[in-house]
Amino acid sequence: ILMDFLNRLSIATKLFAASGTSVALLVILSLVSYFEIEQLRRLQDQGASASKYALVLTEAAGLGVETREIVASAQLPGATTASLALCAEKKAEAKSDLQKLMDMSEDQQTKEAIAASTAIYNSMIRIVDEEIVPELMSNEASPARLQSANSRLDAAVERLTATMFKLRDLQTRIVEEDDR
Predict the structure, then answer these.
(1) How many CA atoms lie within 13 A of 20 on its CB side?
(2) What's the pLDDT tens digit per position in 117-160?
């Protein structure tokens, strides 16, 4: 029956039907390709965002230790002024990095971890600004008070580092869940 139908069609009709079929297939293939490319672009954007977040998180992970090193160097004879200037720069950088992390975060658990990290960093800065720096600037610095403040600062650095590792692990888990 199909052969009879095809035999009755003129060559022009057959050519027109074949051309129409080719155009339809080309349109379908183009649409499929377009949507696949858009999906790849979205995946690429997600990967770039995750990479940027990981970079900022990596920089922020070292904030406590870097700040501690600056404060330690400020306690060396003759190094106070330059080290305090570095400490001020580090505070600005820390505030910026922690805010970037907060702005880039999407889930509540991550935001809470960043808020905890910020609170710990702020407590470190209070120890530096309210205890260590005044002690270093006084003419009668007390080694016992400096040691006490430094011990609390070290504990805060350890807490900050642990919190940043937890944040990194949380982000790794989130990315792995998104990949599934």
Answers:
(1) 6
(2) 999 999 999 998 898 888 888 778 788 998 999 999 999 999 99
Query: Of the ranges 22-26, 37-41, 58-62, 146-150, which one carries the lowest mean pLDDT score?
Result: 58-62
Residue 2 has pLDDT above 80, yes or no: no
Q: From CA 32, how far away is CA 133, in angstroms rounded?
A: 65
CB 160 within 8 A of CB 121: yes
Tell me the pTM.
0.70
**Which pLDDT does position 177 carry in this prediction?**
77
What are the structure tokens assigned to 165, written together?
A: 């590792």
Residue 44 vs residues 37, 38, 49, 55: alpha-carbon distances, Å: 10, 10, 9, 16
DSSP secondary structure string for all residues of the chain = -HHHHHHHS-HHHHHHHHHHHHHHHHHHHHHHHHHHHHHHHHHHHHHHHHHHHHHHHHHHHTHHHHHHHHHHHHTSTT-HHHHHHHHHHHHHHHHHHHHHHHHH--SHHHHHHHHHHHHHHHHHHHHIIIIIHHHHHSTT--HHHHHHHHHHHHHHHHHHHHHHHHHHHHHHHHHHHHH-
Please provide the distance, in angstroms rounded to a whole number, between the alpha carbons at the two ends of the chain: 51
